[in-house]
Specification:
Blueprint (H helix, E strand, L loop, with lengths): L8 E5 L6 H9 L3 E7 L2 E8 L1 H8 L9 E5 L5 E10 L6 E8 L6 E10 L3 H4 L4 E4 L3 E6 L8 E4 L8 E3 L10 E2 L6 E6 L18 H25 L1
Length: 231
C-alpha cells in the first residue's frame, strides 16, 4: 500500500542564537523549531507549524511519509521526518528533524506489519495469536515505501508460524531482516503449576532440647559412679 500524500509543508528559516529562549519564542508564536539536512546540502534551521507535522505523524504512513518541504528562499525538496521530540507531560511537539530525500536512491526504512483475520488455530483450538515482530526493515525507492505490510493469518493453525520469508515479497521491496525470523505464531497459554507448599518444620520443644542436654551432661556423671562401684 502506497504511503499517503500530503500538501507541501511550509517552513521559514531561523536566524539568531539557537538557545532555549529562542526556542521558547518560536513556540509562543505557534511554531516549533526544526532542522532540515541531507542530500549533500547544508543543514538549515527552520520553523514549521506543529499541526501539520502532527497530522503527518498520525497518518497511516507515519514518519515514513515523504512530502514536499517548501523552505522560504530555497528550492522545493522531498523530505521525511526522521526524529521528533515531545513535551513529556502534555505531549506537545518540541522539535523536528527533517531529512531531504533523493527520489532516485534506495533507502532503508522500518515499516509496520499488519496481521489480518482470525487464525483457525484461535477459532477452533483455543490458541492465541502472538505477534513477535511489529516492524520489519526494508530497502526500496522512496516512492515504493508502503504504509504497512499486510498478511492474512486466517489459515494459520495451532502452532503455525509466519516468518519474514512468508511476507508478501515484490521486486520493489528488499527485506533486510533474517528470512527465518519469526513474525507471528499461534500458540497456547500454558497454565502454571501451583507452587508446591512446603510445610514448615516444627521446632523441637524447648523441654526436649533441655532433656538432651541434661542427658548428655548426666552421662559422664553416671560413668563416674559406675567406675567408683567397680573400684
Amino acid at each position: 500500500m502506497a504511503a499517503q500524500k500530503f500538501d507541501a509543508v511550509i517552513a521559514t528559516p531561523r536566524t539568531g542564537k539557537f538557545n532555549k529562549n529562542h526556542a521558547r519564542r518560536v513556540r509562543v508564536q505557534g511554531k516549533i523549531p526544526a532542522v532540515v539536512y541531507g542530500a549533500g546540502l547544508e543543514s538549515v534551521a527552520i520553523t514549521v507549524d506543529p499541526r501539520v507535522v502532527t497530522k503527518i505523524l498520525h497518518s497511516e504512513s507515519g514518519h515514513n511519509t515523504i512530502f514536499d518541504l517548501n523552505v522560504e528562499g530555497a528550492p522545493l525538496v522531498k523530505a521525511m521526518i526522521v526524529d521528533w521530540q515531545h513535551e513529556p507531560i502534555k505531549g506537545k511537539l518540541l522539535h523536528i528533524d527533517f531529512k531531504r530525500i533523493a527520489m532516485d536512491k534506495a533507502m532503508r526504512v522500518s515499516v509496520p506489519v499488519q496481521l489480518n483475520g482470525i487464525p483457525a488455530g484461535v477459532k477452533n483450538s483455543g490458541g492465541i495469536l502472538d505477534q513477535i515482530m511489529r516492524e520489519v526493515e526494508i530497502e526500496c525507492l522512496p516512492d515504493d515505501i508502503p504504509g504497512h505490510i499486510d498478511i492474512d493469518v486466517t489459515a494459520l493453525e495451532l502452532y503455525g508460524a509466519i516468518h519474514v520469508s512468508d511476507l508478501p515479497h515484490s521486486g520493489k521491496l528488499k527485506f533486510l531482516d533474517d528470512e527465518h525470523a519469526l513474525v507471528a505464531h499461534v500458540t497456547i497459554i500454558k497454565e502454571e503449576a501451583p507452587a508446591e507448599v512446603i510445610a514448615p518444620v516444627a521446632a523441637e520443644p524447648e523441654v526436649a532440647k533441655k532433656g538432651k542436654g541434661d542427658a548428655a551432661a548426666a552421662a559422664p556423671a553416671a560413668d563416674a559412679k559406675a567406675d567408683t562401684k567397680k573400684k
